[in-house]
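PROTEIN–LIGAND DATA SHEET

This sheet pairs a single protein chain with one bound small molecule, glyceraldehyde-3-phosphate, given as SMILES. Inputs appear in the order they were entered. The predicted three-dimensional arrangement of chain and ligand is reported afterwards as a token string under its own label.
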Amino acid sequence: MRDFNALFKEYTCNLNDDQVKESVSKLLSEKATANATTEVYKTCFNLIDLTSLNTSDSTSSIEAFVDKVNAFPGEFPDMPSVAAICVYPSFAKTVKERLKFPLGIAAVSAGFPSSQTFLEVKIAETAMAVSDGASEIDVVISVGKFLEGNYEELYEELDELKATCRDAHLKVILETGALVSAENIKKASLIAMAAGADFIKTSTGKMSPAATLEAAYVMCGAIKEFYNKTGQKVGFKPAGGISTTEDAVKYYTIVKEVLGDEWLNNKLFRFGASRLANNLLSDIYGKTVSYF
Ligand SMILES: O=C[C@H](O)COP(=O)(O)O
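PREDICTION REPORTED AS:
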């Protein structure tokens, strides 16, 4: 039995929500403008997990989605690629077979977006997605277990899913909108990282509020403290409701200021977004682009 209260005591967990809000507002008012550049927009594009998580997705719609990614370098030769394509697990194979060049294949899994199913089902779904070609697995924590203080079961579940991922990277979604307080977000970040998360991710995009700048600030702070204590670099993925270039620049600024330049690449920083890519392209080219 792990002592999670001892773990929380090792870190700064008694966070005040108003103070977090103030710190974020100060940081952005001082630092964000300098990052509103074409170079940063291009970097942000290269951080995107280009997402299609629709009830209406089908093999043919996902094939068409992948075809756009395949044709992108020909259409936009001066742009980097997105980092990955993110789909429901049953489409991992479609993406793998259709992609014409190596790219991350992220599958949401383990009862996404509610996490409300049997652990055996979560493990089977994850194993199948990995065997179908997913190189990244995005799972949601059991928010209910967290809120009732059942940290042990939450940890065990993530630990088993991490083992199931084998070489695939595990991204753990906290669903910060359901955790509500900065203190909860910090504690959930620590449990996810202790269980072996390669990335911690804010939200599923399936509930409101989705990603917030305050949640991002707290999670980046948790990643930094975890790195200082363990030497392990965990990635950060804000996701859900991030659609404008201005949003992207704000999240970029938080990561840059809290975690440093080392995190400003797609090994350690992703945007989970279904609508951001066209807006970044429009701001890079100075005209409306509706490619994706
Ligand atoms: O993981 C990615 C999110 O589901 C994307 O959310 P979004 O559709 O609001 O961009």
